[in-house]
Specification:
By secondary structure, this protein is mainly β. The protein folds into 3 domains: 1-53; 59-170, Distorted Sandwich (Coagulation Factor XIII, Chain A, domain 1), CATH 2.70.50; 174-332, Immunoglobulin-like (Sandwich). The chain is built from 2 helices and 19 strands. The protein has helices at 2-24, 31-37, and strands spanning 59-67, 75-76, 81-89, 98-104, 115-124, 127-133, 136-137, 145-155, 160-170, 177-183, 198-203, 221-227, 235-239, 250-252, 263-265, 272-277, 280-284, 302-304, 322-323. Strands 1, 2, 3, 4, 5, 6, 7, 8 and 9 form a 9-stranded mixed β-sheet that branches. Helix 1 (2-24) crosses helix 2 (31-37). It is elongated, with a radius of gyration of 31 Å.
Length: 332
């Protein structure tokens, strides 16, 4: 009985010392705080006390701002919706656990000095995060440029850490069509669209790949190209299932003799492919159906882009047509 009583007295003394430490540190004296600062345990017949406090604040290992449209992170536009994402963890001996995470996004959204981030499982741009804010809206007038934001993390032992220097780019300029060009694969017939020939769409800035095809990251992916036997033999690009036109607009090839009947490329056999690199999207033709023929002379293409394509910040593209640069030539 005396040994049990001695052990209880030692535990109470440990908790009292923990409370004193909490008071000295200016922390709220709660059972959770005291226990986190000082854990009393009986060992060697109850004659030893071991301190095990959480003195370290949580830390964000990574964070990003992502526009509400999804796609490429780190870019927004004035008046656009966005979320703040972060991966935050707590340390200690033992860790008391993360209590709260907030973002000071006031340079982007006036008044948002402590936007709360909620815990969960989130993903943006192929990266996973365990905290995310509610949807926020950038100021309606926000000059283009780089803006900074900060994160403040607190644990259950009242330790806090503010990390600053995180950035997001504001871009308010709509992307435009700059040029359209074709390339003839070596060994193919000049002027005849064939397997391995390609067409390249050049924009004024990088396009968000998810605006062209859902969940696309810009790497090579299968598509179907179509050429219609009509004025200018217009070319368009469809998804791999050949059911939905992709928002690359339409290209007038400048002549009426590239196909003698409607033709597809990549619907069967070798698929056509699409890849993004910088400001360009290149479509390489797959296996052709019946219909392709050889142009008898030169011409000049005209590309009319789609407003459904948008840049990394979410600015919708213009639909102003762009004429092929350079001298008139045979396509493909």
């Amino acid at each position: 009985m005396n040994r049990v009583a001695d052990r209880r007295r030692m535990q109470h003394r440990g908790l009292a010392i923990g409370a004193m430490f909490a008071a000295l540190l200016g922390l709220a004296v709660t059972a959770a705080t005291v226990w986190a600062l000082y854990t009393a345990k009986a060992a060697n017949d109850g004659n030893e006390l071991v301190a095990a406090g959480d003195w370290a604040a949580p830390s964000a290992s990574t964070t990003v701002i992502g526009k509400s449209l999804g796609g490429v992170p780190g870019f927004i536009k004035q008046g656009g919706g966005y979320n703040v994402y972060a991966t935050v963890s707590d340390s200690g001996a033992p860790a008391s656990g993360t209590a709260s995470v907030s973002a000071n996004a006031s340079p982007i959204t006036t008044g948002q000095t402590a936007a709360a981030l909620s815990s969960g499982s989130f993903s943006f741009g192929g990266v996973s995060y365990n905290y995310r804010s509610a949807a926020l809206t950038a100021n309606a007038v926000l000059a283009a440029g780089t803006y900074s934001y900060s994160l403040t993390s607190r644990d259950l032992a009242a330790n806090s850490r503010t990390q600053s220097g995180f950035t997001v780019t504001v871009d308010n300029t709509a992307p435009t069509a700059v040029d359209i060009q074709t390339t003839n694969k070596s060994g193919n017939t000049a002027g005849k669209p064939e397997l391995g020939d390609s067409i390249t769409f050049t924009f004024s800035e990088p396009i968000d790949p998810t605006s062209i095809l859902a969940n696309w990251n810009g790497e090579s992916t299968g598509v179907v190209a179509r050429m219609t036997n009509a004025t200018g033999d217009p070319l368009s690009v469809y998804n791999a299932a050949n059911t939905t036109q992709l928002p690359l607009g339409s290209v007038n090839l400048g002549r009426n003799d590239y196909v003698s009947a409607n033709a597809t490329f990549g619907a069967t056999g070798t698929a056509s492919t699409m890849v993004l690199s910088g400001n360009t999207i290149t479509v390489t033709l797959g296996t052709a159906s019946a219909g392709p023929s050889t142009a008898s002379t030169t011409g000049t293409m005209t590309w009319t882009p789609s407003a459904s394509a948008y840049d990394r910040a979410g600015n919708a593209g213009t639909t102003n047509a762009r004429t092929e640069s350079g001298n008139a030539d045979k396509e493909f």
